[in-house]
């Protein structure tokens, strides 16, 4: 039961836009989900999209705004006045509104805030703007239902109905004391099944998880996943209830984190998408390529050291890409396992036992690969026995060293508070290329003595 | 406010286990969250963990079982009788119970099912076992609250209280007709604010998303994220309501999918964790290394074709790892962008425009890198002008070709219904190594004519 955008629909819309048939546009789009409309607008050009956007009702457009691709949203916001933007924000939840304000220029920000109609809402939004976006404060929203521990169930239900009007999902009702300090929670189900004269203090659950405003967002995600929570309250330094984080906020954090690790492993250093501009792609990709190029300079230098081998044992040089590739692949495998283990908090045991395990693993893999290589060098590649022997010995050594480097570097980065995912990708492959080639030719030199 | 396992706690537990002090063990663990206890058990050895597990109450152990690492769970289940396992499953939600039964041997499965006390529960679990684990049916649970459209609010609240007893999170109340066909939904909030004589058919919301039992799990995840749903009902071919999927089920799907893509990009072919056995690691890693090794054989052959260059232009061979590394890195960047774009459904435009964009991007990156390389080869690497010139030309060509291969292959795989993430990692780097070296030496041969 999902909506799919057809080419015909896009054509129909384009025709309606061309003929300025606003009435028909509204009829066509009115029944659609805002996420679907956003998907449609992303397929139109900026002018068409803005036109449609202005035709629609602000109740709908506010939600659409959230779902648009960044560049289209920026473009549309650029064509709205401060007052028009404020009208959109009045319709949104506090954290969504704060996110959009956060994208505006400093001057426009103040102007938009002053145009917000609902003063309470404006206060909440301004409050949220204070927090760092990677913290619980940065992802929480102010919409929540709270009751005083001194009330009874009847007052509580009345209050709750009032408060819940603007909240799409209630989840839990939080219980606070007179100073607004978080004391516990009530479930909707409990409310439905308790007599209306009961005092709240007699029924609420005193044990509940909460996080501080400055807790890192990935930590919040970890806690909510571990304890299987659908919402978690956020408290300030004094233990006062200041906001709430729901599981859909956390979904974004988890996806972003996974995307970031994936991109880092592929040598892409900021969050970019396929449809971003060439300049943004260059900014994200070029630094890693420069790193790899400089690493390449080092491999040229290293190979230069062994130039004397060329005359008699030139075939040795045919194997450098093979050795480098194996070192790179093994290193990336090892570091990816560590990076994921760190991210999922699933690493146990000491560094030493981990390194021992990697050595065992590399020995096993290395020996199997060595047999293939040794046979291959003899039957397929047709090189002298001694060359095949050297390459095989080098392969096993390189695999062991590469896996140790791959294991050690992310753990080291983590120790120094640097994102271990930086270690994967070009960084590991480049350093392993260099080490691998150095080891290979050193072994060759020892055996052949050139 | 999160629990951290201390070394002291583990020691204390180990002492209590040694002295068989069950009473004290229970006191110590009774107040802890099951997720924390699972984390503790994972740190103990199998015998200790099983001992503690048997001391605890089945209400608690059932939930713990779900959170344990696979190997410990397997070990503990192996030491329980069919009846004991059934006791655990009686405490669990249907989909969790079905997941655990799915891990048992065929014989044990039947035996455990026959020992389940709650017949309704057993029927639901058996029903769930029918579905493929990667489909909506495979991740849904049977716990949900449903009411008949012909009831009034009062009957509905009564029924709901009864049904909701075993359900931790109500979310929505589904409305069905006499044939159990899904008609719409009611929110808890609406129930709280509607008079008790109102007919359900007058208040329920008729529009709602649902998925079919055989919808793929990643598709369900996409729909729930797009429409920001916390729960989605699952219907069979006849439109009858058969289950429900909540956002926490989807969280697992999203994480698994992200982990899988990440591991594939790193050349690891099944879902493994750092703490899995060496044999499992070898099974997951070795195939990719063999692929890379065979690719390496091809590079040796390719270089062999250009052996005549060695006498006069031996320095050319110093640059093969550099060229191969650049080709690999560029290819992985391009393919990672495509794989993520496909996963997030955010690719727009034609294949042609995408390839044109990649060429523009590679030209820009390539030119900047070419300048660095050309200057570097002259001032740092001290090679003749002509070699520097050849390497520079080759670099730009290789970057363009590698990015086209990186873009094209995942799109091609997707077209044939193969997971495009397979394209990233060793596959792309290996094929780009080969192409890169071939292009480089072909250009050298054209210019130098050896």
Topology, number of strands of chain A:
6
CATH architecture of the largest domain in chain A: Orthogonal Bundle
Considering residues with a beta carbon less than 8 A from a beta carbon on another chain, report the largest interface and each chain's count. Answer: A-B, 113 and 114 residues
Q: How much β-strand is present in the residues of chain A?
A: 5-15%
What's the CATH class of the largest domain in chain A, please?
Mainly Alpha
Q: What average pLDDT do the residues of chain A reach? A: 88
**What oligomeric state do the depicted chains represent?**
homodimer
Report the CATH topology name of the largest domain in chain A: Tetracycline Repressor, domain 2
Which structural category do the helix and sheet elements of chain A fall into? mainly alpha
Q: Please state the CA-atom Rg of chain A, rounded to the nearest Å.
A: 30 Å
Count every helix of chain A, treating DSSP H or I runs of 4 or more residues as helices.
22
- Low-pLDDT runs of 5+ residues of chain A are none
Query: Which bin fits the share of residues in helices of chain A?
Result: 55-70%
Q: What is the global morphology of chain A?
A: globular
